[in-house]
Design a protein that fits this description.
The complex is a heterodimer. By secondary structure, chain A is mainly α. Chain A is built from 15 helices and no strands. In chain B, helix 2 crosses helix 13 and helix 10 packs antiparallel against helix 13. The chains are: A mainly alpha, B mainly alpha. Chain B: Keywords: Cell membrane, Membrane, Transmembrane, Transmembrane helix, Transport.
Chain lengths: 310, 300
């Protein structure tokens, strides 16, 4: 993926030979040299494990009770696609990602950023600080805070009781909703910051001109604001989607995937399989599926980022 | 980027304008302001309540899971966790792990950002898109092979290898941000230095870095905050309890051997654990209006 970048322009005019090319080539190489440490680290610690991930996924590697590792072909994937818990994990992952990132963080972040443009400065800075505070809090602490919040005897039920609304034991009845809301609480700041910066660059004249022409709030948003910040939306969606797909600590701290797997997303199930049951081969096969899901989401967003789409 | 007039909703605009009536623009604006403030206050409260719990619980006697004014204030929770084993060693471990990792990320990202920002190449765009994709690479997905690799190479449970790995995982985001910040430094200044015969590394050190130090600080602090909260990587790669950072050692409060969950101590520990990153973030946003610098650097 990255190795050839140091020798930039390898195919440039390959037929031309002679002295003139050599200094240019070595200059290009020297120019790319500062990339080398980054490329090495990325290859060893990120690309390497991905390759290993692919390899292990086709073996029956286990960490205990077995000395040799055999190539087993597609057996792990066949096992996965016959495994109800695996389907459940994919479903939970998609629900979690769509609910908490694509809908929750993304829209709430945009709404907050837009309201900030209307609100008074004091409200803006206090609410902004609170949202960011939730984001700066370490993942595990956030997990415990929200565990306490959603518990049967926690703050949410107290608030609901105060408002005379029905209460329930959220972590048992709908754990995936609880962890999704927790992820919205924790991650919205990122979208809010991205959209605040993006909205500040939407030219005022443009929205004002549209308002003059009688465009309503919704029309102005849909036809003026949104097209202008389109690239920020795509970048933001890509980053938060990928981030949310790999959330582990938050769910682990709140529910450990339970009860009865009702919040077991792929990262949790992978962890249980590979590092608690020591089935490395099967676990990496599932991790590979997670990578593929991430890549599919990215492809969709990258289309929106293509320069020619401007 | 630019919106042409043709994209504006011209058709039907007249009818909308025709139906507009009633209050003047100014009072509509004032009403909008009040409504925006109200909605924001409600959102702010929703973000505040879980945070409030940690504060009230940390100073309360006895166990509670809801936000309530403590009947008896106590400092015992803080005093109980402020020991070497419970608090100071995990914080120090976290400092070594995350400080070292941040150093790796920032230095390597600065080096990598320079050619990406300054030179043209056909490979640049694919490389940058790869970086962007890797930014969100589900680290949880590759931790299993990383664990297997570290076990085979005898790197498991070693502070330095975990540090370098942490640095590498933060690298894509670091490079991406750093490159965008570096793009903001005009290249003309360097061209003068180049014609004077300065090497690119010399111009990077003497011209580019001094001009983009706010960007470097933003990347440094964000990398550190990200690592400080990272639970999964040290949870998998480090085993010896004496090496665990605070993000993992916090689990001991859930140890059944200590007689159930100690919520008061957990809350007090959490506050100690959050202080470094809260201070760093405050410093950054005060001095650099960092949040907006980050947002600006993230545009596609």
């Amino acid at each position: 993926m990255t190795a050839s970048t140091t020798a930039a322009r390898p195919g440039a005019a390959p037929e031309v030979s002679g002295a003139a090319r050599v200094p240019l080539r070595s200059r290009t190489f020297l120019r790319g040299l500062p990339l080398l440490p980054a490329v090495v680290l990325l290859l060893v610690f990120l690309a390497g494990p991905i390759v290993y991930c692919v390899y292990y996924a086709f073996t029956d590697m286990q960490l205990t009770g077995q000395t040799t590792t055999h190539f087993v072909g597609l057996a792990n994937f066949r096992k996965a696609f016959g495994d109800d818990r695996f389907y459940n994990a994919i479903l939970q992952t998609l629900v979690f990602t769509v609910l908490s990132a694509i809908v929750g963080q993304n829209i709430l972040g945009l709404v907050i950023a837009m309201l900030f443009r209307l609100a008074t400065k004091a409200v803006r800075s206090i609410v902004g600080a609170l949202v960011v505070a939730a984001w700066v809090v370490p993942e595990i602490v956030a997990g415990y805070l929200l565990y306490a919040f959603f518990r049967d005897e926690g703050s949410l039920n107290e608030i609901l009781a105060f408002l005379h609304l029905p209460q329930q034991n959220w972590l048992y009845t709908m754990p995936i909703l609880a962890v999704s809301l927790a992820n919205v609480w924790r991650g919205t700041a990122f979208s809010m910051l991205v959209y605040s910066a993006a909205l500040s660059e939407v030219p005022q004249e443009l929205t004002e001109a549209a308002a003059m022409d009688g465009a309503g709030l919704w029309q102005r948003f849909w036809h003026v604001t949104l097209p202008t910040i389109r690239r920020s939306v795509a970048t933001n969606l890509m980053l938060i989607t990928l981030q949310t797909l790999s959330v582990f600590g938050l769910i682990f701290a709140m529910t450990k995937g339970g009860p009865s797997n009702k919040s077991t997303t792929l990262p949790i199930y992978t962890y249980q399989t590979a590092l608690q049951s020591y089935e490395i081969g099967y676990g990496t096969a599932m991790a590979l599926v997670l990578l593929v899901i991430g890549a599919l989401f990215s492809l969709v967003y990258l289309r929106a980022l293509r320069p020619e789409a401007d | 980027m630019a919106i042409t007039q043709a994209e504006l909703p011209t058709s039907g605009a007249g009818t909308v304008a025709g139906t507009r009536k009633g209050p003047s623009r100014r009072s509509v604006h004032a009403a909008g302001k009040v409504a925006a403030n109200l909605v924001l206050v409600v959102i702010g409260l929703a973000f505040l309540v879980p945070l409030l719990w940690v504060v009230t619980t940390s100073v309360a006697e006895g166990q509670t899971l809801r936000v309530q004014w403590p009947e008896h204030f106590t400092g015992a929770n803080f005093a109980n966790v402020a020991t070497t084993d419970i608090l100071f060693r995990p914080l120090l471990n976290g400092l070594i792990l995350c400080g070292g990792g941040t150093l790796v990320t920032v230095v390597v990202a600065i080096l990598a950002a320079y050619p990406l920002s300054r030179y043209k190449s056909r490979l640049k765009r694919p490389f940058l898109l790869t970086i962007l994709f890797t930014t969100g690479l589900p680290i949880t997905a590759i931790m299993i092979p990383v664990y297997a690799m570290f076990t085979q190479l005898n790197l498991i449970d070693q502070m330095w290898s975990a540090t370098v790995f942490m640095g590498s995982t933060a690298l894509p985001f670091g490079i991406w941000l750093m490159k965008n910040f570096m793009d903001g430094v005009p290249v003309e200044l360097e061209e003068v230095a180049w014609t004077d015969g300065a090497s690119s590394m010399a111009t990077l050190r003497r011209i580019v870095l001094p001009l983009m130090w706010p960007g470097v600080i933003v990347v440094t602090i964000f990398t550190f905050i990200g690592m400080w909260g990272n639970f999964f990587v040290p949870f998998i790669l480090l085993i010896d309890p004496n090496q665990l950072p605070a993000s993992v050692s916090i689990f001991t409060f859930f140890d059944p051997q200590h007689g159930g969950v100690q919520y008061g101590q957990l809350a007090a520990f959490s506050i100690f654990y959050c202080i470094p990153v809260a201070v760093l973030y405050l410093v950054m946003s005060r001095r650099l209006s960092g949040s907006f610098a980050l947002g600006g650097a993230l545009k596609g």
